[in-house]
Amino acid sequence: MRASADSARLVQILLVEDNSADVELTRQALSEAKVANTVHVVEDGEAAMDFVHGRGDHADAPRPDLVLLDLNLPKKDGREVLIDLKRDPDLHSIPVVVLTTSPSEEDILRSYDEHVNSYIRKPVRLEDFIKVVSSIDEYWLGIVLLPPNVGR
Fold first, then answer.
1. Are the CB atoms for 36 and 2 separated by under 8 Å?
2. If DSSP states are collapsed to H, E and C, what string results for 11-62?
């Protein structure tokens, strides 16, 4: 959902990523897309759950419209975060895109079994990484109609 000049609604993106270089590249690619969005970043799975539930340091956090989730995270693994999000009746409608280095068939299958919306492997080359994030932006924020943000 691209926010037009007529729309005051910003798309709230939660990026759950512990690699600072990937965070910066993702932010850059999303900002170049000229989409009215806000990217919130947390570095571990526990912080991701605090963010989506609006608790602790994230008590004032908005409900995300889209979650970009790495699987290999400290404290609480991204796989566990996905399960928690998709099994929670208040959160399961938030689209989750796994963006990870894991090519594991088991990770791919388990993620789809837990109702991930997309599973994307991070490319190694910088220009390919930017293309991937741009395609996520184009699809999820340009083509897809996201569910109404009815949370906090």
1. yes
2. EEEEEECCCHHHHHHHHHHHHHCCCCEEEEEECCHHHHHHHHHCCHHHCCCC
Tens digits of residue pLDDT in 7-45: 446 788 999 999 998 888 888 877 776 566 788 999 999
96, β-bridge pairs: 67
Q: Is the CB of residue 38 less than 8 Å from the CB of residue 13?
A: yes
* Whole-prediction pTM: 0.86
* H/E run at residue 123: none
- What is the signed CA dihedral for 149, 10, 144, 21, rounded to 10 degrees? -110
| DSSP state at residue 152 | -
Q: Write the Ramachandran bin of 54: left for phi over 0, alpha for psi from -120 to 50, otherwise beta.
A: left
- Report the distance separating Cα 3 and Cα 149, nearest Å: 13
Identity of the residue numbered 135: S
pLDDT in tens, 95-105: 999 998 888 99
Secondary structure of residue 3 in the 3-state scheme: coil
> How many CB atoms are located within 10 Å of the residue 145 CB?
6
Judge whether 74 and 9 are in contact, CB under 8 Å. no
